[in-house]
Amino acid sequence: MSAAEGPLVVGVDTSTQSTKALVVDVATGKVVASGQAPHTVSSGAGRESDPRQWWDALREALHQCGDAAREAAAVSVGGQQHGLVTLDAQGAPVRPALLWNDVRSAPQARRLVEELGGPKAWAERTGTVPGASITATKWAWLAEHEPESVRATASVRLPHDYLTELLTGVGTTDRGDASGTGWWASGTEAYDEEVLGHVGLDPALLPRVARPGEVVGTVRDTAGLPFAKGTLVAPGTGDNAAAALGLGLRPGTAVLSLGTSGTVYAVSERRPTDPTGTVAGFADARGDWLPLACTLNCTLAVDRVAALLGIDREAVEPGTSVTLLPYLDGERTPNLPHASGLLHGLRHDTTPGQLLQAAYDGAVHSLLGALDLVLDEDADRSAPLLLIGGGARGSAWQQTVRRLSGRPVQVPEAKELVALGAAAQAAGVLTGEDPAAVARRWDTARGPVLEAGERDEAALARIAGVISDAAPLLERETDRR
């Protein structure tokens, strides 16, 4: 047995670029082993990955965990949201998965909104006004452009569903991840047959939506993984809902997550319906709600700007009047799927460090613009923002969020919060505890707090003005080859 006080569980984070696995002590929250393996994502017009890479990466990550994984009593998978996984009758991928940041389905998104009652009706019905990220639009795109793939599809899954099914042999999902598809109705908490009929998707192809806290199966002997027979499998969930579990998040606390994409969200006891489409009314993994706004361009885009400038990602310089909108993959918030990066205000004396700071500012501006919409009216807007994700430990990210928000910023010491949240969910099915309470017992949100400073209203106004003035350029479709 490992040097642990209690039983062990495994939490998995299958993200855009890699799969991570943590073996966690249920009693203390201590990570006793970890592993990670990469994925590849296509470039060009689409963003696709072969789902079989995720399974290979999971196996590699678990084998890196060694004996600790064999001692685990339960496992849960948190995963990137919205990805469309199409499987044939043998359970093999029909084609590579269409990922959340594939924006080719923007025309289908617009048509779906128009054809089924408009933005307000969609917000009331599913909690979310479809954009190119939402899974239903990707299915509509596939039906239009690859009808042979649709005909060959015997089941449709999300990324975390795919791995959970390979573990158990049973097709299940959870309310958190299902709420990001566009075909799950938040009001009834069931698949919406009218939406499914409209996009031509047979509900029999979809996984069963498991209840929070339900054991969805045990790891199959044929899975070829270092688990003991009888290892319990939890429902899993989407990455943001998993991170909310990993923080033990209570209603009203705002989170900014800085990863490949940027997200801002908070737990709410009220079902969100935003007809503007800025806030997605997602469900969480416990039974509450997770209103969330997402940007497509965050750490990856800013790092790309740093690479183009030939400087380190932390080499920012103050005093810039330049505006740089790093919309390198199109953008979701604001909803500009065809946009590309835009630079305004360049002068002879502009330095590379000032350009890089402008990229940070442009990325953070998009997230903060949705913050008030995400929070309930009675939330404390002077409370610290929780800063998580790959960029959260970067000084440039921390100081940019602090300066543009005017709020204190807390950086949890715990790493890999998606995997930790999945581990807390696995602990919950093992012990019967609320997984958020498990995470609070582990004290995962503990970390230093950066004091609030004066909000940089001038920078916020300048960026907003450029976005408004440049709207025709940002909305113009460009060649993405």
How would you describe this protein?
With 481 residues, this protein is α/β, with parallel strands linked by helices. The strands form 7 sheets. Strands 1, 2, 3, 5, 13, 14 and 15 form a 7-stranded mixed β-sheet that branches. The chain has a 7-stranded mixed β-sheet with strand order 18-19-17-16-22-23-24, with helices on both faces. Strands 4-7 form a two-stranded antiparallel ribbon. β16 and β17 form a beta hairpin. The radius of gyration is 21 Å and the shape is globular.
Descriptive labels:
24 strands; Nucleotidyltransferase, domain 5; seven-stranded mixed β-sheet; 2 domains
The pLDDT mean sits at 94
Flag low-confidence runs: none
Shape descriptor = globular
Secondary-structure-derived class: alpha/beta
Stated plainly, the CATH topology of the largest domain is called Nucleotidyltransferase, domain 5
| Largest sheet, strands/sense/barrel | 7 strands, mixed
Estimate the helix proportion, in percent. Answer: 25-40%
Per DSSP, the total helix count is 18
- What is the number of beta strands? 24
The CATH architecture of the largest domain can be named as 2-Layer Sandwich
Give the end-to-end Cα distance, rounded to a whole number of Å: 53 Å
CATH level 1 class label of the largest domain: Alpha Beta
* β-strand amount: 15-25%
Count of separate structural domains? 2
Rg (C-alpha, Å): 21 Å
CATH superfamily of the largest domain: ATPase, nucleotide binding domain
Pfam families: FGGY_C, FGGY_N
Catalytic activity: D-xylulose + ATP = D-xylulose 5-phosphate + ADP + H(+)
Family: Belongs to the FGGY kinase family.
Enzyme class: transferase
